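My current task is to audit a protein record that another person submitted. Alongside the sequence sits a line of tokens, each denoting a local backbone shape. Please read both lines and tell me whether the tokens look consistent with the sequence. Do not assume that whoever made the record got everything right. Thanks in advance; the entry in question is below.
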Amino acid sequence: MTDIDDNQDSPASDKQAADKHVAKKLATVGKAVDNPIHTDKADIGVPSAPAPAHLPDSMINSVKQLPNQQERLILFTRHSLRERSNGNGFASYDLPLTPKGRVLAKSWGRWLADNLTYSMEAYSIASPIERCVETATLMQRGAGVNHPVVHQPLLVEPGSLVIHPTLANDVFKNVGALQFINAFLTNSLDSTKPAKQGGLDILRLLYDNQPKPGHLTLAVSHDTLLAAFLGVMMQVTDITWNDWPKMMEGVFIWFDDKPFEQATATFIWRGQRYDTAVARLL
């Protein structure tokens, strides 16, 4: 499995499916989480500094919802801008970041360090693929910190969701990334873990790599894993291209102080805030 280009033209049938299902999804998402969107008087508020060029707008909307408290904050994000694929829409793992992507990663790290109350003095985890490791490294460098970037096999495929790589690759290339993830979310694939198990494994990884209170750590991965994880967390089984994570787009997540099986994960995606009990995935 590989990730896909941003702004890729999806097949006509996919576009029709997106139009057909978008209303249904919007109606479902509000019910999908254990607690719907809520506000917090301790939220950080509106940042005064302009956002880095090429950063998805949703990231600043999410920052506005962050708690101005001593949480153990994680940014689970797709890598920065990379070179485009060879035209078939699928990107091999050897495609590097573009010069703009390197600037964006470093600028985004600097922006976070300058505008959040959270320290980035923490190690990061990343997919072993070079563009993910480089994204984490450059974000740390922009923030003025230098900590290890731990290569994490659960943040790349095969390893996270896929259990039969050859079979999964054949299906992925045949139906495309979007339909592959939708099939995963409905437990329709023989080549992957059950959806809840896949989401739970990523959630456990994030829980086990929480930074100290008042700190922010990075978890850098790929679009397919992020899309699948969010689908599981939001209890949706049908996503569209409008839901697909863009390059350098991510979800902020933190946990309460309970043991993992009893914990609640709070996450912010595209400016909306949700709570999900880990027990729901067990």
About this structure: The chain has eight helices and nine strands. Confidence is low (pLDDT under 50) at residues 8-42. The radius of gyration is 18 Å.
